[in-house]
Specification:
The chain has 355 residues and is mainly beta. Strands 1-2-3-4-5-6-7-10-11-12-13-14-15-16 form a 14-stranded antiparallel beta barrel. The longest helix is centred in the first third of the chain and has 14 residues. The protein is globular, with a radius of gyration of 23 Å.
C-alpha cells in the first residue's frame, strides 16, 4: 500500500506542478523578501540572514530549503532622526530608499523537484507622522524550476510483480529545467515608538502590509502538453512588538495569510521576549538583547514551537513543526526543523553628528 501511495504522490507532483506551493518558512518574519518587497529596509540599516529548513524526513525523501538575503538603507545618515532632547540634529531626507538581494533554493521529494529563486528588491518610505510611515516596494527576479523524471515511478512501469523504471512511463514529460521572470509588489504601513526612557520598556512597534507576488504569472513548462502559469499570490501580514511597561517582557504577536489560486495558508502566533540586557541609548556601545520563546499555528497543518536569541547585532532562531494534519498517521507529528542566523546593524547615526 505504501508503494501505491508513493506512486500517486509522484504522479501528482508532475501533473499539478503549476499548483504547487511557493517556497515558505515557519519563521516567516525572518524572510521579508518572500512576504512583501515593501519590508525591505524597514527595520535595520543593514540586515543579512541565512536560513535552512528540513521537512518530511519521517515520511519520504526530505524536502530541503535554503535561503540567504541582504538588505540595506541607502544614505541612511540622511534619514531624518532627532532625539527627544534636541542634542543631535540630522539632515532631512526626501529620498528614503532601501534595496535588497535574496536567493532561495528548494529540493522536494524523490523526483528532486527543484525551485531556485533570485530577487532584487527596492522600497521607498514616506513619513506619515511622528512615529509612522508607509512604504512601497517593488521586486523583480527569476524563478528556475528543475525536475529529474528518471526518479519518478508510474503505474505503466509495473511489470506484474515490481516497478521497473526501465519500462516506458507513457507520461508526456517535458523539459527538465526552465527559467521564468518574476514581478512582485507590496505596500506597508509601519509604526514605531521607542521607549520614553531607558528601562521604561513602553516601546511599541508594528506593521501591516499587503503584497502581490507573481504579478506576471510566470509560465510553468515542466509538461509538454500544457501551458500552465503560476497563480498570482496575495499576501496580508502584520506583526507587533509590545513592551509591557516597567518589566523585562515584550509580546510579539504576528500573522500571515497567503492565497494562491485554490490554495491558501494562514499562520498566526505569539512570541514572548525577555530582555536580558538594555542598550545604551546615546553611546551605542551596548545593544539590547532578548531571549524569546513562542508558539505558532499553521491552519490544518502544524503547531510550531519557536525559540529566538538576539544578542546585539546577532540573532539565532530555531523552530520545529509538529505535524497535525491528516498525514499524522504517517508522520507521527514529526514535521521538520528550521534554523536561522541573522546579522543586523541598528541606526549607527543615532550616536553622532552633534548639532
Amino acid at each position: 500500500m505504501k508503494k501505491y501511495l508513493l506512486v500517486l504522490v509522484c504522479v501528482l507532483c508532475v501533473k499539478f506542478n503549476a499548483f504547487s506551493q511557493d517556497i515558505h518558512f515557519s519563521q516567516y518574519n525572518e524572510n521579508p523578501s518572500l512576504i512583501n518587497p515593501a519590508l525591505t529596509g524597514a527595520y535595520y540599516v543593514m540586515r543579512a540572514s541565512v536560513i535552512y529548513r528540513d521537512q518530511w524526513g519521517s515520511v519520504t525523501v526530505p524536502y530541503r530549503t535554503y535561503g540567504a538575503s541582504y538588505e540595506m538603507k541607502f544614505k541612511a545618515s540622511e534619514w531624518e532622526k532627532q532625539d527627544p532632547f534636541k542634542t543631535k540634529l540630522y539632515k532631512k531626507a526626501y529620498n528614503r530608499l532601501a534595496g535588497g538581494l535574496s536567493f532561495y533554493s528548494d529540493k522536494a521529494g524523490d523526483g528532486q523537484m527543484g525551485t531556485n529563486v533570485g530577487n532584487l528588491s527596492i522600497a521607498t518610505f514616506i513619513k506619515t507622522g511622528a512615529f509612522s510611515s508607509i512604504s512601497l516596494g517593488l521586486q523583480g527576479g527569476i524563478i528556475q524550476k528543475t525536475v529529474n523524471y528518471s526518479k519518478f515511478v508510474f503505474s505503466n512501469q509495473y511489470n506484474g510483480s515490481t516497478y521497473d523504471t526501465n519500462l516506458p512511463s507513457g507520461e508526456p514529460t517535458g523539459t527538465r529545467s526552465f527559467v521564468s521572470p518574476d514581478v512582485n509588489a507590496g505596500l506597508l504601513y509601519y509604526y514605531g515608538k521607542e521607549e520614553s526612557s531607558i528601562g521604561e520598556n513602553n516601546h511599541l512597534y508594528g506593521d501591516f502590509g499587503f503584497s502581490m507576488m507573481h504579478i506576471n504569472k510566470p509560465k510553468q513548462k515542466l509538461l509538454s502538453i500544457t501551458d500552465e502559469r503560476l497563480y498570482t499570490k496575495f499576501i496580508v501580514h502584520g506583526k507587533y512588538l509590545i513592551g509591557l511597561p516597567h518589566s523585562n517582557v515584550s509580546l510579539a504577536p504576528s500573522f500571515l495569510f497567503q492565497q494562491q489560486g485554490p490554495q491558501n495558508e494562514f499562520m498566526s502566533g505569539l512570541m514572548v521576549k525577555y530582555s536580558i540586557k538594555n542598550d545604551t541609548k546615546y553611546t551605542g556601545y551596548i545593544k539590547k538583547s532578548y531571549f524569546g520563546i513562542g508558539a505558532y499555528y499553521r491552519n490544518k497543518d502544524a503547531v510550531i514551537a519557536s525559540v529566538l536569541l538576539e544578542m546585539g547585532h546577532y540573532a539565532l532562531g530555531f523552530t520545529y513543526d509538529l505535524n497535525v494534519s491528516a498525514l499524522t498517521k504517517v508522520s507521527t507529528l514529526r514535521g521538520g526543523p528550521e534554523i536561522m542566523f541573522r546579522y543586523n546593524t541598528t541606526n549607527k547615526f543615532l550616536y553622532q553628528k552633534r548639532g
